[in-house]
Structure formats: structure tokens, C-alpha cells
Amino acid sequence: MTSGIKSPSGVKTKTYPYENFQGLDTSRDVTSLDTGKDQHLAGLVNATCDWRGQIVRDPACKYISGQQKVNHVAFYSKSEVCWAEEDGTATNLISDRGHEVMAAHPKGAIVSSTVFNQSVFLASRGRQMYRYDGIKFNVNQSPSLNALLPAYTVSVQRRLCVAGIPGKETEVHVSRVDQDEIWPEDEAKDEVSTLRAGFFDIANNLGTADQITGLGAFEQNRLVIFTADRALVYKIDPNIDQWIIDDNANIYIGCVSHNTITNAGTDLLFCSRSGIHSIKRSEENGILVYSYSLSDKIDLLYRELFNSVDDPETISAVFDQDEGQYHVYFPQPGGTLCRRLTLAMNPEGGEPQPKFSEGNFLNSRCGAFLNGRFTMGTTGGVYDVLKVEKEEDGTFTPDMSITTPLLWHGSLQDIKETQSIIIQAAGKGIITVDAQDQKGNVIGELVIEVDDTVDDNYFADVPLSRQYERKWSHRYVAAQYRIKSSGGAGLLRIIGFAITVRN
Q1: What is the mean pLDDT of the chain?
Q2: Do 211 and 298 fall into the same domain?
Q3: Of all residues in the chain, what percent carry a pLDDT higher than 90?
Q4: Average pLDDT in the 97-110 region?
Q5: Rounded CA gap, 112 and 73, in Å?
Q6: Cα separations (Å) of 438 from 254, 442, 459?
Q7: Position 106 in a domain
Q8: Do residues 41 and 405 touch, judged by C-beta distance below 8 A?
Q9: What is residue 249's DSSP assignment?
Q10: How far is the C-alpha of 403 from the C-alpha of 423, rounded, in Å?
Q11: Are 335 and 420 within one domain?
Q12: Domain containing residue 69
């Protein structure tokens, strides 16, 4: 980035660019993050850093249905979604086709779901499971399954698996192949079919009084059984007699909420007490299955958010496959507010270089993704998340905020005399730039209108980036900048910015 503002004769200037943004970093003090290139941020709300290192405002949302607090969302098909919402006295099950079950569960019930045999199965601890087939919600017809009252469910290798069973907290029960109404209690004692239903108890594998906290499907033939402190990986075979623990998977980190377990490409993501983790297979030998932390850079922020919720089981997450983003929702006490943590992964493959941001838009509490459609539940109904470049009437747009660390422009002691500020941006919107010095004193504020409607742009869907330079005459040793945007719709991208300083 170069400056177009002329300096008085004989006055030399130097431009300090800040670009290739790396998202939030709360592991270091705000005074020690000034790097220029590969710049980390002290605050990033309702915006994400993409794989290019550019900051993109969160997309707009379009209202779908509902007025109450939504605690779980699931897709029946790409064009149909169902959800669990609270009406103040109970938890109701609703679909966007108008199907409903009032008071299906108590108020505050934690609901999980999976798709099996072209139906959505919804579970809640100590309550009967419901099955939604696109026509209506039904209590499952299997007396054996109804007697289990499980908290968690997942499908793997053409079987429905359930756990979180009251009084059987270390057991996993598995349906017959392709049969969601045939469970271990339904099988004859002398049944020898390898397709039969069954169950297994992991108590002897724990060595502690731990209990199952979630289930996840990994790869094509792995079932991951989580406790609060570790995870066991089972090799799944169509022959139930061949189910065994994978000795090449040693995972000594646990999961705090079943609803944070989700597939992201070949990885399985989940949340623990200490952070966000991924389970994956070693690319070096193709044998070892291991876990690693993704959230070291925001360790303090994650712990703050984790400790802010009343019940860790209320934490949920969704993976947006199109954008490569893992969104984690932390409902706040009182039931009206919710904070979001977003991890942007590397879509190019290999070891992801995670970039983190925060969000609070519409107080979203949960989400679901299917075939390009991202739907989220909020404190006031269900919304579709639009593609970031899409602009529609009647949509809701988030307020974006970007906060830099203290920027020193090369020296930790010298007083700087700034001349101009340059913003490189694309898309459309009104942005406000303000700053305060190292002592917290307000320096100044200015407004810039970003507009991609230029005469030489022949590609309407690919907005050109432009440099917006404004006079910025201030004195300071260091300054912390904030870039905000309110209102507008469609794409708004901050590619970088620069400060021109007199030598």
C-alpha cells in the first residue's frame, strides 16, 4: 500500500502496513502483538479471517420461522428443518412445515439428533426419543428403545447407536443393521446373525468412575466414545462380533458436550474443558489416530467462555463445510444472550492453521449445515445464513468490530507523527475508524464509505478492492485501532490497512 497524500517539502514519510491477518491471539499481551505482516488481532467480533488472511464481515441472515429460544436444529432434508424450542414452560419440537409436538421435553432439556433411515431421531436424557419423518413427529415404536431414554445418538455403518442412558452411563446400545426398531432386548437369546443388535460396556476400559459424554462417527468405520477425560475409538464392522477397540488410537482428552462433536472433512472436532480439539489419522504412517489442540492461541478466551456457561452440556457447535468454519456457541446465564467462537480452518488441506474470531449476532445458540445450507437457532427463532457475497432485502446484518493490538510503528519509545491512514477494502459498507494511544486517550475518528461500484468492474460478483486514504494527523508513541461497520448487506472485506508516519 502506498500513500497518495503529499507531505510538505523536505518531509519524508514511511508507511507501516498491517496485513495477512491471523485472527485473535489472546495468548500474548496486547502490547507485544505488532508484527505488520501476519498480524494477529486483539478483538474480532462478527467477522472472520479467511485463508487469504483477509477480514470478512459475517454474512447476513434471513428469518425462517419461530419466535422462541431455539436450543437445537436438525435437517430432515435440504429444504426442511426441524428444531427444539422453549416456550417458557417446556421444550417443543417444531418443523418448518408446521409439524409440532408441544411439551415434548421439560424446559431446559438438552436435545441431540442424528439422521438414520431417512428420519431425524431426537434424543434427550431420561426422555423418550422422537422420530421425524417429514410428515410428523412420532415417539419411537420400539419399546426397548423407549425404555433406554438415551441422551445421545449417532449413526454409523447402517446402525443407530445410543448412549447417555440413565443407570447405564458407560453402555452403548446398537440397533440391528438398517433396523431402528430392533435393539438388544428384542433379539432372541440364541440369535447368531452378525447383523444383530447388541451393546457393550466401556466401564472396564476406563479404570475410573467416568461416564459417556458423547458419541461421534469417525471415517467410514469408526465409532468414537467420549467421556469427560478421554475417548475410545472402536473399529466398526458389519459383523458385530468384529467390533474391537482400535489400539492405534490413544486419546487422553475428553468431551464436555455431545453437541460439539462434528465432522470436518476427515477430522472429528469437539470441545473439552480446556479447548477445541481434533481427532485425525496420521498423514505420516496412515495408522495412528490422535488428537491435537486447535485453540492454543485463544486459551484464555476459551476458558473464559467455558466458565461463563451454567452447564457445559449446553455448549453446541456446527461446521460450515463451504466456508471451512467451526462455530461454537456458549449460552450465557439468563437464557437471552449467547457468545460464539469461530475457528476458520485451512480449506487447502494438511495441518490447519486455525484463525479465531468471536460473535454475538442474533444471539445464535446452535446450528446445522447440509448441502450448502447453513441454518442457525437463536433466542428468537430460526434463521438461514446467507452466502457472504449475497445481498437480499429483509435480511439482518451484523455489526462488525476489529481491534488491533498496540501498534508501535517500529519504535517502542519514539513519538510518532502520523500523516494518513490507508484502508484497502472490497465490497460495500460504511466503516468507522477510531484509535486510542498507549495511555487510553482517544486520538480521533473518521468515517469511510466502501463502494465496489466502479466503472471498470465487469464482474459483478467479484468486487474490486480499492485503497481509501484519509488524512490522519496525530501524535503518539503507540496506538490501538478499531475498525467498525454497522448496517449494509453483502460482502465487506478488509484486506489490509496502513499508517503513514513522518520521519
Answers
A1: 92
A2: yes
A3: 82
A4: 96
A5: 9
A6: 41, 10, 43
A7: yes
A8: yes
A9: B
A10: 14
A11: no
A12: 61-385
What is the bridge-based pairing of β-strands 289-293 and 355-359? unpaired
* Grid cell listed for 273: 474443558
pLDDT digits 0-9 by tens, 61-79: 999 999 899 999 999 998 9
Bridge partners for 425 per DSSP: 466, 494
> Can you tell me the distance from the alpha carbon of 477 to that of 105, in angstroms, rounded to the nearest whole number?
59
Query: What Rg, from alpha-carbon coordinates, does the chain have?
Result: 26
Q: Are strands 80-86 and 69-77 parallel, antiparallel or unpaired?
A: antiparallel
CATH number at residue 29: 2.60.120.260
CATH number at residue 70: 2.130.10.10
Are residues 86 and 22 located together in one domain of the fold?
no
Other Cβ atoms within 10 Å of 220 Cβ, number: 8
Q: What is the pLDDT of residue 309?
A: 97
User: CA separation (Å) from 485 to 131, 159, 214, 388?
Assistant: 43, 48, 39, 15
Q: Are residues 41 and 127 in the same domain?
A: no
Dist CA 427 CA 492 (whole Å)? 5
Return the bridge partners of 75, or none: 81
Beta bridge partners of 163: 152
Residue 204 counted as domain residue: yes
Q: How many CB atoms lie within 10 A of CB 404?
A: 23
